[in-house]
Write a structure and sequence with these properties.
heterodimer; A: alpha/beta; 5-stranded mixed sheet; 5 strands; 12% strand; globular; B: 2 domains; 3-stranded parallel sheet; 3 strands; extended
Chain lengths: 169, 125
């Protein structure tokens, strides 16, 4: 591709966009995104081709919402489910993604169960875990850190995972 | 989601995040991040493009193996649409004179609906 020149960074800043967008809707207090200076790091403790790998998504199974319920209402809890049960697709229309320019009809574009099973077949990874996990995109950092993250860790330990791939939409 | 990745790493479990909201993930700070510069919705590749999905998944696996320090971001080489690549960026959550009044009205409407739900005692979400 030809070289290009720009006056702004090329990738989208969703922090800037959402602040302006919700500000224009009359929400004066911008969302406080999580910021951390220090970042933890763990290494694989065995070769990848011996690892059991797990997946985490922000999508959920479709739920029946009564007609009086406002969009996005209703509590979501972290869950674990069989990968096989997700192959028909998951529900994510309530999440924050670009519905004008793309779609999520192809599961592997946001939860690569089939692609990772192929990797297991080819011997690139040991296996894909039988279960995947879902975590809500919560407004509250506290709920994500203190309720959801420990639950996902517990699922991962139950399934004896060696590595985890997390795919937020 | 990045907070979950951090929690797993703190417990000794290696992770990689695959995403398209670069600033949100990098501000939160994760060990390994595979960034694809696409509209939000398809962080593992375009719908129907198995080859691209395999390539991006493969990059995530490479990173699990090879990253040696935190905040390792790899940007995948894919472009959403070379002919009109900036259109989706400009369009998403656009705020300008064409929609400023409509957005303000939508905000008012949403707040009124939420106040109504709260008054009926079923607003807890």
């Amino acid at each position: 591709m030809a070289a290009d020149r720009r006056t702004h960074r090329s990738h989208v800043s969703y922090i800037d966009k959402s602040r302006n967008y919700y500000g224009a809707q009359g929400y004066p207090q911008p969302y406080q995104w999580s910021y951390n200076h220090d970042v933890p790091f763990a290494s694989l403790n065995k070769p990848l081709d011996e690892c059991r790998v797990g997946l985490v998504t922000t999508s959920f199974f479709e739920r029946t919402v009564d007609k009086n319920t406002v969009a996005g209402a209703g509590s979501k809890e972290p869950y674990a489910a069989l990968c096989d049960d997700a192959l028909g697709g998951l529900y994510n229309k309530d999440l924050f993604w670009d519905k004008d320019n793309t779609h999520t009809e192809d599961l592997d574009t946001y939860l690569p169960i089939n692609r990772l099973r192929e990797c297991a077949d080819e011997g690139r990874i040991g296996s894909l875990a039988e279960r995947f996990y879902g975590v809500p995109t919560d407004y509250s950092h506290r709920r994500t850190s203190r309720r959801d993250a420990p639950q996902i860790l517990e699922f991962a330990r139950e399934d004896e995972l060696d590595a985890v791939i997390l795919v937020p939409l | 989601m990045s907070l979950v990745a951090r929690h797993l790493e703190e417990a000794g479990l290696p992770t990689v995040v695959m995403g398209s909201a670069r600033d949100i993930v990098e501000e939160c700070g994760v060990s390994r991040f595979v960034y694809t510069d696409f509209p939000l919705g398809n962080p593992v590749g375009k719908p129907g493009d198995v080859e691209m999905q395999s390539a991006i998944t493969g990059i995530a696996l490479d990173l699990l193996e090879r990253a040696w320090e935190p905040r390792t971001t790899v940007q995948t080489p894919f472009v959403w649409d070379p002919a009109t690549n900036d259109d989706w960026r400009d369009h998403f959550m656009k705020v300008d004179e064409s929609n400023r009044d409509a957005l303000a009205a939508a905000g008012d409407q949403r707040r009124m609906a939420q106040a109504g739900v709260k008054a009926e005692g079923r607003g807890r979400g």
